[in-house]
Amino acid sequence: MSNLKILIADDHDLVRKGLRMLVEEHPGWSVCAEARSGREAVDQATQHTPDIVVIDVSMPDLNGLEATRLIRKACPKAEVLVITHHDSDEMAAEVLSAGARGYILKSDSDEELVHAVEALSRHKPYFTARVTEMFLANRASGATDQAESIRKRLTVREVEILQLLAEGKTAKEVAAALVIATKTSDTHRTNIMRKLDLHSIAELVRYAIRNKIVEP
Amino acid sequence: MASASHLRVLLSDDHPIVRRGVRNILESTLEYEICGEADDGDQTVKLALRLHPDVVITDISMHPMNGLQVTEELRKSLPDAKILILTMHDSVEMLRAAAAAGASGYLLKSDAEELLVAALHSLGEGDRFVSPSFDAKLVKQLFH
Q1: How far apart, in Å, are the Cα atoms of B8 and each of A181, B28, B34, B57?
Q2: Which of the listed CATH numbers 1.10.8.420, 1.10.357.10, 1.10.443.10, 1.10.10.10 matches domain A146-210?
Q3: Which of A115, A122, A202, B80 has the highest local Cβ count within 10 Å?
Q4: Across the interface, do A17 and B21 touch by the CB < 8 Å criterion?
Q5: Looking at the partner chain, which of B15, B24, B113 has a beta carbon nearest the beta carbon of A106?
């Protein structure tokens, strides 16, 4: 492997220093830029087009997950490895949903981080055994990530309409907001309710709140 | 205590990447020898009792046994070892707790790159060291 460009984004100097040291010890890897915030990470990624972005979640001025979404959009070839101290199945699901393909904990070993970067450099996903166990446990208990599940069941347009309906808009108002015919808007609403097995607008609102599509 | 120019340091933090960052700072000086690393409080105490470091640099948030408990334990069992708390906790309450536990220094992780070597130098000379963002009068009261 030669000349792998890595962007390091973390608001803690010590962590960036540690990551830089780890990267520079590895032949063929180099740090092309560092960032202390999510916004800076997006800017640096756009400017330096790294192969890999190693990014923390909790950062000021745009968190690591939102930054990941923007980086994946601006630099689709860049793979994102999230490194965090947040240890939960919800976080793992959010990391994936943001477009990162690697997720490791700051408490994981240095070797784990090297393996993760190596895997991502080959465009292979990387998750530690612990994270994989969390996913499998969720699957076994049927508690799959709701946001991911909605995205699979509804089209992007339908999610958009679900949100507007849950915010209290009528089919006519939805049509006006999206510049579509009222009849089309009605058809979308019928499809959404059928796909999600909902039978009233009240159920639809409850569903949207429960799945964090709208705030209660 | 060894001379300030050659201190043996035990490094304790549950995040390996942070320990690596600290090592990177210390290795660039050649004045300090990292004699061991630990990733929880229990291991820190065990290693300290075996290695007899001059200084223990310890994080607070660790399990089992947090950095304050480590400090209290080492004050009793290794009274000559100096304890430098290295933490992201910037509250006065935590600073008080560290002083009460018997720490000789309290350095915020955000200051480490600039001040870690100065902090170790102070401890090596038998002085105290606290991150400058804390009120100097309070520091004097707590770390007399």
Answers
A1: 76, 15, 6, 11
A2: 1.10.10.10
A3: A115
A4: yes
A5: B15
Residue contact A110–B112, C-beta within 8 A: no
Q: H/E/C letters for each residue in A147-176?
A: HHHHHHHCCHHHHHHHHHHHCCCCHHHHHH
CATH architecture classification, A4-140: 3-Layer(aba) Sandwich (3.40)
Q: What is the pLDDT of residue B69?
A: 96
Q: In the CATH hierarchy, which fold is given to the domain comprising B7-142?
A: Rossmann fold (3.40.50)
Q: Which residues of A touch B25 (CB under 8 A)?
A: 17
Buried-state track A149-164, b at ≥16 Cβ within 10 A, e below 16? ebeeebeeebbbbbeb
Q: Where in chain A are the domains?
A: 4-140, 146-210
Instruction: Kindly report which listed range (A87-91, A123-127, B120-124) carries the lowest average pLDDT score.
Output: A87-91
A-chain CB neighbours of B88 within 8 Å are 12
Across the interface, whether the CB atoms of A17 and B24 are under 8 A apart is answered yes
Q: What is the pTM of this model?
A: 0.73
Give B20-49 pLDDT, tens digit per residue: 999 999 988 888 999 999 999 999 999 999
